[in-house]
Amino acid sequence: MAYFGALFITTEVLERQNLVFHVAKVSLVMNEFDSDQDRVAQLRVQIAAHNEAYHGRDEPTVPDAVYDQLLRELAEIEQRRPDLLTAESPTQLVGSAPNEIFAPVEHKVPMMSLDNAMDLDELASWHERVLKGIEGAASCEFVCELKFDGLAVSIRYEDGELVQAATRGNGRVGEDVTHNVLTIENIPHRIPDAPKVLEVRGEVYLPISGFELLNEQQLANGEPLFANPRNTAAGSLRQKDATVTANRKLAFWCYQLGEIIGGPQMSSSIETFELLKSLGLPVNPEVTQFSDFAEVQRFCESWMSKRHDPDYEIDGVVVKIADLAQREALGSTSRAPRWAIAFKFPPEEKLTRLVAIDVSIGRTGRATPFAVLDPVFVGGSTVGMATLHNEDQVASKDVRPGDMVVVRKAGDVIPEVVGPSLSDRSADSKPWVFPSVCPSCQLPLERLEGDANTYCVNRKCPARIETGISHFASRNAMDIEGLGERTVRGLVEQGMVNDVGDLFALTKPQLMELLVSDSSNETLVNNLISAINGARERPLANVLIGLGIEHLGPSAAELIARRFRNIDNIVRAETGDVEAIDGIGPVIAQSIRQFFDDEHNKSVVEKFRLNGVRLDITEEEIHAPQVLDGRSVVVTGSLDGWFVSRDEAKRLIIDRGGKSPGSVSKSTYALVVGSEAGQSKLDKASDLGIPVVGEAELRHLLETGELP
Description:
Shape: globular
Distance between the termini: 73 Å
Strand content: 15-25%
Low-confidence stretches: 1-34, 95-100
Largest sheet: 7 strands, antiparallel
Number of strands: 23
Number of helices: 25
Helix content: 25-40%
């Protein structure tokens, strides 16, 4: 029998940012197998290796979709050939053996895995099996929960005291991570009036906002960035030093009970969740019960479209039978309960063809290789290009034009090529070679010793000038509407602009010549001139961001503007003066000093001054009334009226002593809603009774600290 998709895996350890991970060299070959027995043996070896990588080392070797395909193929063969099924098959086991670094913990009640439904048809098939398995049941109640992408953990309380926490491990034996779980803020150490023994199962995760903040700190300190929230959470929980875990700001959702002694009698899943909430344990607010299976399907479809709305990563929906007696009747296989299933969202890693490797030149001259791909739908959008980071990354991953490659994308994160599949690589394929000259100006590229990046050092390189101007005009910087890519290219090609300082000297006749073929149509030019004039009054922090100083982000720019108050003080500041600011690391301080040591950059500042750009911070900005002291105001959607941007609205909230987190909670004072706002934040605000206001009400809130 011929099989497609036999996966022969070899791995090489690569440094990706600060995480060691394994990129799978996946060969898809067509091969003749003597029997099903050969294929089963091969699949079991591969799946066991992937389980160890994912569960044991937090270093997944293939996309989830590829792993699921392997496991499903094995299950299908075993179902067709029950004589090949053994108790040791991966289809009958959960996870992997626990890591020997941590003490083993035997679970009193096994921590099982879940079977998967990859689409709505498979979910409907599970529903039919459930109804057949419950005698006399024409229908049943369902509970839907979000499927969190974190690390499964069991937490044991005895007489109300947290005495032990363990990972899933292989489902029967996990790893003792009690000292680390005790550092997670939303897990209570003691529960008054708890049952004599209470074992709580749930997921430890790293909030996306915490992940982004952690990477901001890494960037400020000149350290490599973390790869993704799931791996960072798992690695953080498996630290021998609990202070490291504590600094990572992990969180926990509970969704199941294990062993319970002395607790109340419960008949439904919702009663279980009510018990957990009454004991002060964190329960996800999206848990919903349905009596109609069509509503279950709609719930799954709804969360497919808003999977990136929460401040935590999810990769599916878990559907469970609500009635505990019906669960008992359905029972379990050796690895998964029959009364629950995981509806998996479409994968955010997919295989596609790498058509070419090109190089882009950024505003600092950095030459960044990127992959031109056969378009593939992944992570909620169609991806045609993906980053390859730098020369060393391309060499380490050994991706070549013509390869089939694994592409990863999550939400708004820039798509990335993870590694190659060797299926179609021809015998005469050769490694890609980084170019020696700039693709824009054709002058030599340079790479300094010890630097991972390669640069075009020609300051007059058209690509450098164009990307620098586009960055300067972006919403997060000077927000010059109408200064799009085509206009910028025309300004540079016509010699009207040589750097961002020249933008404010542009005249109406110049722009008319460039942009208007019919001189009677002046609206386009008038709007652009108005936008440029408006940019003259942007805050000093926005000017610093617009200059494109390497490593300098919005938060650091705000701190520096407040500390030094005007551009001249910043230009003169010594590295130590900048580094002394709380929240500013040595890398940012050194980068600012190097930037303003450059005479060209100082000349750009002088052009700003000559053309009326505000280069100081106003007294009002310095001494903003602290009317929102301690209050949490969440902003969602696009703000297109009084505010320059949502980021500016958040900055104004923080200026007045408030906080502006990315998610709604019971401590939220108000939710400010712009256009195209995410429904999940609105729903949560409604559930919690949080006031929902618009831009006009926010303006009043910033002035008075009170809602109108």
